[in-house]
Amino acid sequence: YQRRVRGFGVFLMSGMAKLVTWLLLIEGAMAIGFASKCWRANRQCAIAPPHHGTPDCEVHWFEQRLDHFNFGVNRSFQQRYFVYNKYWKKGNPIFFYCGNEASVELYVNATGLMWESAEKFGAMLVFAEHRYYGETLPFGQGSFSPSNLSWLTMEQALADYAHLLHSLKQTVWASPGSPVVAFGGSYGGMLAAWLRMKYPSAVVGAIAASAPILAFEGLNTKRYQDLSLIHI
């Protein structure tokens, strides 16, 4: 595998699909555009043309485990995700947005690269909502009680995405061979990169914009900024 770090982007890829390699060479691939605005008060989003957005998508719900690592916790919740499949047929690629710290509508309406590339690749677009954000609330209105926040972790979120993809490819979409490319920006970009690293069987590659996956206390952040190429 090869990981390329340059300023604002992190690209992870494998040799198993020419699709991923081609995508990583798209001019401006690091610039997952945020051209639209979303107001949380009424959850109405302004869509910047010519991109599609939430009105063009189907909204679905997936039963998700509350705790993927402790089977003594027997509780589940409903995770929201948006799907746009106008150009897709079985076996074609799936572009998967790793939702981050906001209602998923924001990312549906603002992630230009996925919309711009969907027709060219015959791809289905899937935007998954991060647990504890938007309408994906594991404990409903009580989700933000301190006693209920222990399941709000990036490890649980990554497992959510891997489980959702595996399950839907096998059942609802009936297309287990479809390659999945993860997308994300900022924290969502970190999740996309980590999803490729932690669950390499779930996605064949990741396009991660503004994703500081090495910018943590104790790490050499200057080295991160200067790094041009790492082989892993």
Give a structural overview.
The chain is 25% helix and 24% strand. α4 (154-170) crosses α5. It has helices at 18-24, 104-110, 112-121, 154-170, 187-198, 221-226; strands at residues 2-6, 9-13, 37-39, 44-46, 58-65, 76-84, 94-98, 124-128, 180-185, 205-209, 230-231. The model is unreliable at 1-11, 20-42 and 227-232 (pLDDT under 50). The longest helix has 17 residues, at 154-170. The N and C termini lie close together (6 Å). The radius of gyration is 17 Å and the shape is globular. The chain has a nine-stranded mixed sheet, sandwiched between helices. Strands 3-4 form a two-stranded antiparallel sheet. It has six helices and eleven strands. By secondary structure, the protein is an alpha/beta fold.
Helix-strand layout with pairing:
Layout: E1 2-6, E2 9-13, H1 18-24, E3 37-39, E4 44-46, E5 58-65, E6 76-84, E7 94-98, H2 104-110, H3 112-121, E8 124-128, H4 154-170, E9 180-185, H5 187-198, E10 205-209, H6 221-226, E11 230-231
Parallel strand pairs: 7-8, 7-9, 9-10
Antiparallel strand pairs: 1-2, 1-11, 2-10, 3-4, 5-6, 6-8
Outline of the structure:
By secondary structure, this protein is an alpha/beta fold. Helix content is 25%, strand content 24%. The protein has helices at residues 18-24, 104-110, 112-121, 154-170, 187-198, 221-226, and strands at 2-6, 9-13, 37-39, 44-46, 58-65, 76-84, 94-98, 124-128, 180-185, 205-209, 230-231.
